[in-house]
Amino acid sequence: MNSGVFAVVVVFNPDILLVESAYKSIINQVDYIVYVDNNSKNRGNLISWFKSKERIFYVLNVENEGIAYAQNSGIKYALEKGASHVVLFDQDSVIEQNFINILLETEKECHDNGIEVGVVSPVYKSFDGFKYPIVTLQEGKVCTIEQDSIVRYRIISHSIASGQLIPTCVFKKMGLMKDDYFIDMVDYEFCFRIHQLGYKCIVTNRATMHHKLGDNQLKIGGRMVGVYTPFRRYFTVRNSIVFMREKYVPFAIGFYYFKLAIGKIILGIIYGPNRWNQLRYCLKGIYDGFMSNTGKCSIYN
Question: I need a labelling partner for 156 at 20 to 30 A (CA). Which of 58, 67, 187, 208 fits?
Fold first, then answer.
């Protein structure tokens, strides 16, 4: 067990069996798990399940205020309990043995090499074995890195939240996640914000997570693309614009994700569920993004 390491897991209407599997894979690698419930409909079953488990804390948000708000609820709790590190997970994140140790060892190795670590991330695979390439900013240009090209670790510009190990000193100096983003781009924004204080984002290919993008997935041009609901696509489009306009986000990376969001609009209209609503929500997302309207989705049906 690693002293001072708290896992923060956000749950929302979860499958209890999946939560159980994730719990078993995580609990012996950390001190505590903080479960943050975003007002799940099955919270009665969740609470009953939690009562039978050891070394967990349960935080209930009376409304669903989004992933960033929920993560912040768990991070604040971990800070109050004196955590040295926080590891962020999705509700269905199942990790391999020694996963946390590898992230901590990577952090130490970086420190020994004079690198101020803000985030340590694993690499990601789909459940059918596809290795997601790593997108990063290098010498002012957006590029992709193949996982197998990494030797022990590599400095990158940003990474996704699930599996991120973050020293709590970073939160104390920089602040928490931007909860007005609600969902999408929350993790990327945080990574670029911490760069301002000299922190680095690190990826190691010695730790791997299986991760699913979207409600369904398509393979287009050798790349796995997530297909989302219209509600979720609203945030993808809106927040790509909000993210692109942040002063500390380099133009190249901001514009890259904006172009990606436009591509996702097209894919959503062609392949997504409720195609008319896909278009409607995306257009509203574009409007709200350029008007700097953040927070919850401004349309609901």
Answer: 67
Read off the pLDDT of residues 260-296 as tens digits, 9 standing for 90 and up.
988 878 877 777 667 888 889 989 999 999 999 999 9
Tell me the C-alpha distance between 117 and 176, whole Å: 16
Distance CA 278, CA 233 (A): 7
Closest CA to 93 of 211, 213, 239: 211
Total number of residues shown for the chain? 301
Amino acid at 257: Y
The partner residues of 93 in beta bridges, in order of sequence, read none
* Residues 271, 218: Cα–Cα separation, whole Å: 9
Could you give the residue ranges of the DSSP H alpha helices within the chain? 16-26, 43-51, 67-80, 99-112, 168-174, 186-195, 230-244, 251-271, 275-290
Residue 179 · residue 239 · CB < 8 Å = no
Long-range contacts of 60-65 (CB under 8 A, 24+ apart): 61/36, 61/37, 63/39, 64/12, 64/38, 64/39, 65/38, 65/179, 65/182, 65/296
- Tens digit of each residue's pLDDT (9 = 90 or more) over 232-254: 889 999 999 999 999 999 999 99
